[in-house]
Amino acid sequence: MFTIEEELNFINKNFPNAKLGNMYGHGAYILWKTWPATKVMTDARYFPYKDWFNEYTTFVKGKNVEVFIQKYPFDVIEIRHDSPLVQWFYKSKDWQLAFYGKSAVVFVRSSLALPGKTIRGQGLNNILGYETAVNVFNTTLQIKDWAGTDIVLATMKKSFTNKHQQTSISGLEQLKSAAQMYEQKDYSASLHFMEKALEKNVGNPAVHAAILLMTSIEDWQNKQWHTALKEGIQSLATQYSFAATYNVALMALQIKTMEQSGQITPLDMTEQEKETTKRCQDTLTNLAQEKEKLPPKYAPYIENVEKIIKGSKNYKMQLIEPDWL
Fold it and tell me: pTM above the 0.85 mark?
């Protein structure tokens, strides 16, 4: 049976009085296991939550997260491994990773004391579903728990033995190496391992896009202008990000200036690349007009965009690094 037993036991043992946030699909189990001591945020019934369920649906998609938490506060939350919320909470300074098992990741407010170092559940040694194992694997990459990654891979090798699965597991090992090289800032090696993983039809768009964007930044710093722009476009095609959009638009502008001044020869771009570049520039113009909707961390970059739009020559050629790790 697919439950969050380990995760719930951890929460009840260490944060018994905390207000709980939970996933829709886990609510019924939590209610059955712990009510009335623990009350759920939501469960498989719709009618008790219909007045705010649309807000919750938006929240679990990783949108308007801060607004939702302010309106419906909680101290602890359990999140499915395949939810975009894992990344949001992991990056937030207001939250800290406390525990993860085979079914969910547990975050608590940074103001709460943890019982010790982040604890991984014993259930990682007994994951019965292949897709579940892949989701847990991706979480271990994101939180850089390489020992946890090895446990999941060992479990997968033991449990999933057909030829296709074993090939995919081999690709996951390459993906792990790509993530580790990324953490070590060896982006050339990271890209090499990512390409090896893709050869086995294994990928992770977030990791791949981040690698391409960092490779693009490195090549730009090494004055490989055209290569850097193409890699930035590839990153954007792999997974959308503000960083890639901004970098591509800025690179294209600078390249155009250098081409017009005769500093470099004109870039031979495909029609699709030209269209992507123009779309990035248009997107930045629109974002500048709606800058209040963007996270505060992007404010300096939007100010830079506004200078460009006004035709100022005093804009900064400052590229944005991805924040995957």
Answer: yes
